[in-house]
Amino acid sequence: MALQAVAKAEAMGWEARVNLDQSDVIDYATVVAWAPGVTQARYITFIDGQISSKGWCDRNKIAGLLDYHLAL
In this structure, are strands 27-34 and 40-47 parallel, antiparallel, or unpaired? Predict the structure, then answer.
């Protein structure tokens, strides 16, 4: 699901970043995407292939969303 979200964002001309964490217990992924020249980014978090959370954030906070040590 996360890679499909990245492909969709890129097809719309957006920049996208994804962080995947697959373990024996849980699959966790975060996708952050934004249109060129905007200050807001869209994020979607997936847990075991299902959307866990989604919303908008400031582009300055992208690193925090993609760092699982801060998210968990």
Answer: antiparallel
